């Protein structure tokens, strides 16, 4: 982080890109808590301590290996001021909702602001709504198999992570399309992933956590993309018609 404004305390997307480039160059990156001797790490960070110990690392005496983690879907669901979506009976708040509190980045604790402020609006809205009648389970309905995230995770980590470009995103759409069209445990994650990469293809700029190496500049004016699953499937078919059975 030397020479970068803010250094190690720069915004998450800036630090993540620096860490990613360093790892791409063949290096490893560590978080060293030993430089703060008065820090009671196990008390302050009990969950991280347990994760480290499960991996055979003592965060009190050893540096912790780190790597960027991608928040692919930040603030994507459009809601009104009460947190209502376009689907009757469905509200959204927190990281899933698009209210404007997130901006273009997943910064530390802004999801807590979203949940604390908008969560109250949602609760008040639900409280003032008459309870609806739940439909029964259709005869012969079978429980769905658990979603299989691994195939989609590999594709997105390779092509739609910290740094993106048009060729990689188009390749990801081609790989995700047959999974999205299938009726398999990976299909639902593939549909979400497909919408992510098509939206990223359409945004030809870099803004917040969306960093495209082929369009590194930030557009002068912000704009919002509205993308539905049908739109994403149609766009993927145009990119890879040979993948459609």
Shape: globular
Structural class: mainly alpha
| Cα gyration radius (Å) | 21 Å
Looking across the biggest beta sheet, what order are the strands in?
Answer: 1-2
Oligomeric form of this entry? single chain
In the residues, how many domains can be counted?
3
Which percent band covers the strand fraction? under 5%
> H/E element string?
HEHHEEEHHHHH
What name goes with the CATH superfamily of the largest domain?
A: Fumarate reductase/succinate dehydrogenase flavoprotein-like, C-terminal domain
H/I helix tally: 8
| Overall pLDDT | 87
Q: Runs with pLDDT <50, length 5+?
A: none
> How would a textbook summarize the main sheet?
2 strands, antiparallel
State the helicity in percent bands: 25-40%
CATH architecture of the largest domain: Up-down Bundle
Based on DSSP secondary structure assignment, what is the total number of beta strands?
4
Q: Can you give a write-up of this model?
A:
This protein has 245 residues and is mostly helical. The protein has three domains: 7-65, no CATH class; 77-126, no CATH class; 150-243, Fumarate reductase/succinate dehydrogenase flavoprotein-like, C-terminal domain (Methane Monooxygenase Hydroxylase, Chain G, domain 1), CATH 1.20.58.100. It has helices at residues 12-24, 41-44, 46-54, 110-127, 150-159, 166-181, 187-202, 229-239, and strands spanning 30-31, 64-65, 77-78, 97-98. The strands form two sheets. A two-stranded antiparallel sheet has the order 1-2. The chain has a two-stranded parallel sheet with strand order 3-4. It is globular and about 60 Å long. It starts with 11 loop residues before the first helix and ends in a 6-residue tail after the last helix. The model has no long low-confidence stretch (mean pLDDT 87).
